[in-house]
Amino acid sequence: MPLYEHVLLARQDVTSQQVETMIDTYKGVIEQNGGRLEKIEMWGVKSLAYRIKKNRKAHFALLNIDAPPAAIAEMERQMQISEDVLRFMTVRVEDLDSEPSAMMQKRDRDDRKDRERGRRRDDDGFGGGGGFGGGERPERGDRPERSFGGEG
């Protein structure tokens, strides 16, 4: 059977459990049509490059599928009907990668860096306190006075 990688973007206001339920539904469609899911990766909520149907963020998921083309067509048809699915893309591949995808490897690498620094993942990395520097501002005594008049 042909092998496929399928990426799914779901609305940001649905919960992770609802996304897992949707994926289970699509898994059932694939299995009913003689295919199977080899791997499911939940990439979490990520920012979109541009708004899609008034959403700035989306739940991302990767599905590695071994199924006939009819099963893929039926799954995609049901995704087009669903209001919770913003976008999806299915790509036929020669072989499925059993290792974690690049997105999961990046997440693991980021988790390790955060643990080494001793901070939580939700910390934005800019120190805190709302500013980018995180520390106190330097004194301004050495800066010249600005003039906003019409001299010149």
UniProtKB/TrEMBL annotation:
Which Pfam families does this entry report, sorted A to Z? Ribosomal_S6
Give the similarity note: Belongs to the bacterial ribosomal protein bS6 family.
According to the record, the residues making up region (Disordered) are 97-152
Regions of biased composition (Basic and acidic residues) lie at 105-124, 136-152
Q: What functional role does this protein have?
A: Binds together with bS18 to 16S ribosomal RNA.
The record's HAMAP family line, in alphabetical order, gives: Ribosomal_bS6
The scientific name of the source species is Methylobacterium brachiatum
Q: Which InterPro entries match?
A: Ribosomal_bS6, Ribosomal_bS6_sf, Ribosomal_S6_plastid/chlpt, Transl_elong_EF1B/ribsomal_bS6
The record's GO CC annotations read: cytosolic small ribosomal subunit
Gly residues: compositionally biased ranges: 126-135
Superkingdom of origin:
Bacteria
Matching entries from Gene3D superfamilies are given as: 3.30.70.60
GO MF annotation terms: small ribosomal subunit rRNA binding; structural constituent of ribosome
Its gene? rpsF
Give the protein's recorded name.
Small ribosomal subunit protein bS6
GO terms under biological process = translation
Keywords carried by this UniProt record:
Ribonucleoprotein, Ribosomal protein, RNA-binding, rRNA-binding
